[in-house]
Design a protein that fits this description.
This protein is 20% helix and 28% strand. Helix 1 crosses helix 2. It has three helices and nine strands; from the N terminus they run βαβαβββαββββ. Strands 4-3-2-5-6-7 form a six-stranded mixed beta sheet, with helices on both faces. Strands 1-9-8 form a three-stranded antiparallel beta sheet, with helices on one face. Strand 5, helix 3 and strand 6 form a beta-alpha-beta unit. By secondary structure, the chain is α/β, with parallel strands linked by helices. The radius of gyration is 17 Å and the shape is globular. Bound molecules: inosinic acid and magnesium ion. The site of inosinic acid has 16 residues, from strand 5, helix 3 and strand 8.
C-alpha cells in the first residue's frame, strides 16, 4: 500500500496521548460534579468515544446532531441546524460540549447559545482541534487538543463530503489522494 492518504499531521499515537491528558484534566476539574458530556455529531464521534473513556468519573452521555452550511453559502437562515436534540435535561448540571474542530467559531457559538438557554450550572467546550486563524466570531474554547494551521483536515471524525471520517489519524486534505478506496498511510 502506498501513501494514498498522505502523511498524517497528527498520528494515532499523538491523538491518543493528548486525549489521555485531556481526560485527566477533566477528571480533576469535574470531581464531585454532576457532569454531562455532550458530543456534537457527526464529527466528534471518535474523539468523544475516546475522551469519555479517559475520564474516570460517573458522568452522563448525550448527543446533538448538527449540520452546518458552508461559509460560502450566503443564503438566509441559520448556518447551523440542529437535526437531533439532546435526550437529557441539562438544567443545573455541569456540561462539557465536545466538538471536533473550532474553525470560524460559528458552530460552537450557536450550540453554546442553545444550551445556555436550558440553564446548565456550567458549560465548557472541549474541542479536539482549534484553527484560530479562521475565527470569525469570538468564542471561548476551554479544552483544546491541538491548535492547527489554517488547512482543511480530514480523518478521526473530520470529513470532506462525509468521507474520510474513519481515517484513524488526521491528514491535510490536499495531501489526500483522489483514490476511491480507503488506503492507509504507512511508514
Ligand atoms: P465552524 O462553525 O466554522 O467553527 O466550523 C465547525 C465545523 O466545520 C466543524 O464542526 C466541522 O464539521 C467543519 N470544519 C471546519 N474546519 C474543518 C476542517 O478542516 N476539516 C473538516 N471539517 C471542518
Ligand atoms: Mg463537517
Amino acid at each position: 500500500m502506498e501513501k494514498a492518504f498522505g502523511r498524517p499531521i497528527l498520528t494515532q499515537e499523538e491523538i491518543q496521548k493528548r486525549i489521555k491528558e485531556l481526560g485527566n484534566q477533566i477528571t480533576m476539574d469535574y470531581d464531585g460534579k454532576d457532569l454531562v458530556m455532550i458530543g456534537v455529531l457527526k464529527g466528534a464521534f471518535p474523539f468523544y468515544a475516546d475522551l469519555v473513556r479517559s475520564i474516570r468519573l460517573l458522568l452522563r452521555v448525550d448527543f446533538l446532531v448538527v449540520t452546518n452550511r458552508p461559509a460560502e453559502d450566503k443564503s438566509k437562515g441559520e448556518k447551523v441546524k440542529v437535526l437531533s436534540d439532546l435526550s437529557e435535561d441539562i438544567s443545573g448540571r455541569d456540561v462539557v460540549l465536545v466538538e471536533d474542530i473550532a474553525s470560524t467559531g460559528m458552530t460552537v457559538s450557536h450550540v453554546k447559545k442553545k444550551l445556555l438557554a436550558r440553564k446548565p450550572k456550567s458549560l465548557k467546550v472541549c474541542t479536539l482541534l482549534d484553527k484560530p486563524e479562521r475565527r470569525k466570531v469570538r468564542v471561548s474554547v476551554d479544552y483544546v487538543g491541538f491548535t492547527i494551521p489554517n488547512k482543511y483536515v480530514v480523518g478521526y471524525g473530520l470529513d470532506f463530503q462525509n468521507r474520510y471520517r474513519n481515517l484513524p489519524y488526521i491528514a491535510v486534505m490536499d495531501q489526500v489522494s483522489e483514490a476511491d478506496e480507503l488506503f492507509y498511510w504507512q511508514e
